[in-house]
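Hi all, long-time lurker, first post. I run a small reading group and we've been trying to get comfortable going from sequence to structure in the token notation. Rather than ask abstract questions, I figured I'd post a concrete chain and ask someone more experienced to write out its structure so we can walk through it together at our next meeting. Sequence below, copied exactly:
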Amino acid sequence: MSNRTRGELVMAVTATARRHHAAYTLFNQAMAEHLGLHPTDLQCVSLLALEPDPRTTGEIAELTGLTSGSATRLVDRLEKAGLAERHTDPHDRRKMLVTLTRGRTPEIEAAWDTPGKAFDQALEDFTDDELTVIERYLRRTTDVGTEQTARLRTG
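-- Answer (accepted) --
Happy to help. Here is the structure in token form:
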């Protein structure tokens, strides 16, 4: 049990979360540079890999928080880098779906090998209950971040 007050604990979590975000942002930038990508492009690849189905450029704009024009340019860069390709939507021929390609997958997986092991190791000594709390915290703060991004962009 901690001797800190709830307010002190919340302040400590908030400060640590800010440091975590900054460290992960810098890591993402370094990984993107290592792979010859823009950091936003790497994040888009990561987000698309989590999606069960191909996405339209408009949906990619929503996922990434980009404008539709910026998302189109992002998909253009991903295609040029051999990371994604566009296909006509079989249900609506007016739409194009974006899928990740397998072409650079081995390179990206190799680049993630050492960091992935390090991130896994950082979680090793947490109990299953603690991991459940961490996941809940991350989901909630992700939702808050998404909501606040939308709020800031809509004025």
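A couple of things your group might point at:
The chain is about 70% helix and 10% strand.
The first strand starts at residue 55 and ends at 56.
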